[in-house]
Amino acid sequence: MSEATTIDPGLGHVTAAETRLSRVDGEAGQLIIAGYRLEDIAPNASFEEMLHLLWHDRLPNTSELSAFREGLAALRHLPDVTLDVLKAAAAEKLDLMDTLRMGTATLSLGLSDWIDPALRVVAAMPSIVAASWRMQNGDQPISPDSSLSHAANYLYMLTGNIPDDETVRALETYLNTVVDHGLNASTFSARVVISTRSDMISAVTAAIGALKGPLHGGAPGPALDMVFEIAQPENAERVIREKLANGERIMGFGHRVYRVRDPRADVLNDAAKRFFSDEGDRDLYNLARHVESVALDVLSEHRPERRLQTNVEYYTALLLHGIGLPTELFTPTFAIGRVGGWTAHAREQLATGRIVRPRSAYSGDLDRAWLSIIERS
Ligand SMILES: CC(C)(COP(=O)(O)OP(=O)(O)OC[C@H]1O[C@@H](n2cnc3c(N)ncnc32)[C@H](O)[C@@H]1OP(=O)(O)O)[C@@H](O)C(=O)NCCC(=O)NCCS
Questions:
Q1: What is the spatial distance between Cα 352 and Cα 371, in angstroms, rounded to a whole number?
Q2: Mean pLDDT, rounded, for 229-249
Q3: Minimum mean pLDDT among 48-52, 118-122, 126-130, 266-270: which range?
Q4: Nearest residue to 175 (alpha-carbon basis) of 84, 44, 299
Q5: Which position among 150, 181, 216, 255 bears the catalytic label?
Q6: Quick one: which of 17, 89, 213, 305 has the fewest CB in 10 Å?
Q7: Is residue 265 lining ligand 1, measured as CB closer than 6 Å?
Q8: Is-catalytic flag, 255?
Q9: How far apart are CA 108 and CA 125, in angstroms?
Q10: pTM (2 decimals)?
Q11: Residue 46: per-residue pLDDT
């Protein structure tokens, strides 16, 4: 390195924004969402109430909530052109996160001045995911039902069945739990894009790209796959040790900020338990708990100084599986929750932030001599 400067490659020690949206206390294992403790608000608020809180900094009263719900429900339909894109993506069996990114980008179409782009993108993302999922499976998309809540309508568009209250409550608890989490990679991406005075659709599209990666939102599918791979409690230690010996990371463990157990894991565990009441499912739940405790032991031996603990993705996998979602829908469903945070951060960045422009330290040569193409060969 030729320049005298300190580099922080993961920006872990940089505070790049002031926010009123969420506070992540990694040492205490506490998450505050706009003033409320996660464990108080996530299992009780509807997703619409949560969105209103993040966008307007207070919970809505009854009439505000019903107007907010109606406004959101009115923007769920997808233009034909979006459906054409989703159809082409389904024909190529593209990853659903790629499809979601492409579908979301098309939401710039038909955005009249009177439509709030944040409301539009939050309303339409479940329609994009559900339509893509159905098309990939050779089924026709199901039109949204404006009488249903945001969460209930998502499940309805996936299956064609109106979900029971308990399932909707579990999904809302999940969406609320992941709605915001400080300056994580996807939220930071959204803030960087909007900091240039770009637009909401561009910011959300970039954030979807960041969320896709296995080190961020892509972990719950592999976490559940690992539990299935282990299959029996006595295999847990061997499989986990083999993965570590092969240089693999154990999905669902470790976190940049938390040095204790991720508080979101407990909220999701509480919500997941009730879905594993019958015998077959209970076995899976018990196996997952066993795998967790073995993984924690082996990881503390492997990297004692890192204090690697269970993160949100491990219990996301269990809860979403309990709700009946296949693993391919885990990360897109995360996006359907996190878009609440992305849009709130983008608004906050527009109101209070500067263009994000860190420096880089040049480490290349300084004195290369130019050679023409003839001289080079
Ligand atoms: C979340 C995560 C990216 C945080 O990364 P981080 O704080 O930047 O930690 P680092 O990547 O610096 O890792 C520090 C060390 O601990 C190890 N480590 C971290 N998490 C690990 C895990 N889940 N399994 C095995 N080793 C892990 C890393 O291999 C690294 O070792 P190295 O220094 O020899 O490369 C990381 O813990 C991880 O990859 N977890 C698994 C994926 C996951 O569950 N993601 C969802 C996050 S909510």
A1: 48
A2: 95
A3: 266-270
A4: 44
A5: 255
A6: 305
A7: no
A8: yes
A9: 13
A10: 0.92
A11: 98
